[in-house]
Each structure stands twice: as structure tokens, then as C-alpha cells.
Amino acid sequence: MAQVEDELSLVFQALADPTRRAIISRLRGGPTTVGELAEPFSMSRPAISQHLKVLERAGLIERTADAQWRRCTLRTEPLDDASAWVDRHRDEWNERFDLLDERLRRLKDSAN
Amino acid sequence: MAQVEDELSLVFQALADPTRRAIISRLRGGPTTVGELAEPFSMSRPAISQHLKVLERAGLIERTADAQWRRCTLRTEPLDDASAWVDRHRDEWNERFDLLDERLRRLKDSAN
DNA sequence: TCATTAATTAAGGAGTTGCTTACATGGCGC
DNA sequence: GCGCCATGTAAGCAACTCCTTAATTAATGA
């Protein structure tokens, strides 16, 4: 089951696809139309549209209408949240190891 | 389609589920058996086993047999990769904005 | 007005996910 | 060995994902 609603899940899920990550990378170069975005991929336009919908649902892009073009712009706030989660977990875990290391070292010292 | 093979996709996909993120959070407290891990969730054991398989496939945990228990241990290397990707994309994008800001400021100054 | 261009929506299909219950495996103490 | 644990695997099911092609919407410019 997915029926994910929480924001973090939506962001990680959006990042879990190589095509979508490539789109994000591409968008760092600046706002881009769907057609330009689709060009390097061997994939139909609708497929790209659907990927963009996933990214939009996760808050990672914004789409604004500009005549018959849709300009896609990157938003980084959700990336901040994702980054915060990952960093928090990684760091606290490493801290635990550092602590353990030190304790072991001390144990070893006192044994000598 | 999924049939993901690349490591980053596996990691993000693993992190895209709240139950699995909770398991990771729980594992920061130290290695834990599957039973202890399953206890706080209103979910069958096999469901937890399957979540653990996803985490293992992404390289986020290690399972070692210890008599009839399996001890699950957190691994943070994949988190490093995920964090690196997110940070890289976020930071470069913000740099672009900083640059744009500066350019606009300069433009404005020269106009006065 | 009408054809062209850009993009989305609709419908459908193959494969995956996330759960379930039932069954299998394998170590333990008696 | 036998019956208990703690887990894992199998099978099945509803929902979701990722793609397709065909039809639709909407703006443009002659």
C-alpha cells in the first residue's frame, strides 16, 4: 500500500526515480518548459507530464502557465526537509559510534 | 516502471515509507531483534520482515543471525550518498539564486 | 476561422508494493 | 527426538506505479 500523505514520504518517493532526479538536475539550470525537459529522454510527453505531477505533488517544482508553455521551476524547501531527516539520522548514529569508540579506548587504557 | 537497480533509487525508495523510517529511527538506539522492532507497530511480523528486506536491499541495515534471533544493525553509508545528492542539488540551486540576486542588485545600482 | 503547437487528461496494461493469513525453517531446552 | 520459540517464505489481493496511445484542452498566428 502506498496512499502516502505525509510530506517526507512524498519527497523521498519523488526522489526514488532516476528520471525524476534527472529532471531535478536539469531544472537547476533554470526554469524549463515541459518540451525541453522531455527532449533528452526516450519517453513520451505524457510520461514526463506524469513525472512532473509527482514532483509537483511533493512540492519539488512549481508549474506556471506562460502562453501555451508551462514553465517548471525548482523549489528546494522540501529538499531541506529531506536533507534534515537524513542528516539527523546519520549524524546521531555516528555520534553513538564515536561514543562507543571512546568508551572502548578508555576501557583499553585502563586495562594497561 | 520501477525495476530499479541503481543504489540511490533503492535508498530513496526505502526512505519513502513512514514505517521504514520509524524502523531506522528505532535502530539508532542500537541493534534490535525483529520482534522488538515489530512490537510498537500494529502490523504483522511478516510485514515487518518485508520492510526489513527492503531496507537490507538498500544497504541501510545488516541482519546477523544470533541463535534464533536476527539482530538488525543500521548502516549509514547509503544515507551518506542520499544526503550528498540532496545537498548538492539544494546548494547549487541556492547558489544560482544568490548569483541572480547579486546580478539584479548590481543592475539596480547601475540604473541609479 | 482554422490548422499548428504545447501540454494535459483518459484509458489501459504489465509489473510492483504493502499488507494479509497460512505454512516452513531452524535453534533452543527438555 | 519433541514442542516451543523467533523468523522467514509463499500465495493472494487491492492499490499503486510507470509506461503506452488516443483524445482533449488551450493559446498562437496566418
Automatic annotation (TrEMBL), chains A, B:
UniProt cross-references to InterPro entries, sorted A to Z: ArsR-like_HTH, HTH_ArsR_DNA-bd_dom, WH-like_DNA-bd_sf, WH_DNA-bd_sf
Signal sequence, renumbered to the chain: none
Domain of life: Bacteria
One Pfam family of this chain: HTH_20
Residue span(s) of domain HTH arsR-type: 1-94
UniProt xrefs under SUPFAM superfamilies: Winged helix' DNA-binding domain
Protein name per UniProt: Metalloregulator ArsR/SmtB family transcription factor
